[in-house]
Amino acid sequence: MSEYPTFQYGKSRFDQSTFFGRFRHFLDVIDPSTLFVTEKQLQECIELLNRFKQGTLPPGVTDAQLWQAQKIKQAIIHPDTGEKILMPFRMSGFIPFGTPVVVGLLLPNQTLASTVFWQWLNQSHNACVNYCNRNASKPAPVSKFVQGYLGAVTSAVSIAVGLNVLIQKASRFSPTTRLLVQRFIPFPAVASANVCNVVLMRHSELSEGISVLDNNGIVVGTSKVAARHALLETALTRVVLPMPILVLPPMIMAVLEKLPLLQRQRRLVLPIHSLVCLAAFGLALPLAISLFPQMSEISVNQLEPEIAMATDCKTVTYNKGL
User: What's the Cα-to-Cα distance from 37 to each of 45, 85, 92, 129, 270, rounded to whole Å?
Assistant: First the structure.
């Protein structure tokens, strides 16, 4: 496949049936360079795509230009509402704006107040990203967002504080071991909170079901079974996402802080820690969201009988969401 295949409106230029194709696609999605696009450039991209749909493209426009225009529009404009997404809550802003929060979560010698603050800030940022990038094709009550937000914050803070208290009371640990263990506490707290956030904010899908589509992209029914699969896949993604971010930096920093340079120059610890977190974040995000296809496939035999009666297809697809 050439670098820029023939342009297809609303499609990805990478093969979404393979992990590597999805990984390359999401590297495009999280590209922070789109944060610096001006309003004029955005409007030019939107105009170019509109002219493509109308069949009135000016001569000389290349596939590369069309793919770039679509990348910029999708990074900034919500596909359902047509409104601009606030910069800190775009997928392309998730790493730049989220890295300082990750650094704060992994700071050593956390007090009770700092633990609560960083867990609250992390879940607040996650909740806003989830809300601003939600599927808005159907109206959802704000109460669902508030419920998910409160549940995520409560679970994250409770688990983090509880584990910190247990570690402080574990007298059999040496000070060095206690410090190392404390650095790993954010992972179970954040992973649990992420799952809680997904389940609470998308609970209505379990009771109402989600649309499933045949091979032609036509909706053939609404399935609660497919909703459970979508929720499980998304929850697994949310568990995997913080794993490299919150596990690798403590391991790497435990080694780096023993180096003579950092022993002598302690002021370098925080900048190096930040760079390690940024690298881990940049790797973890596309890896996690590439685990499952955006449009997942499921056998009709696994779904409700009425869906099997509504289509001759052996498999159908559903949008699992991000």
Answer: 10, 13, 12, 19, 30
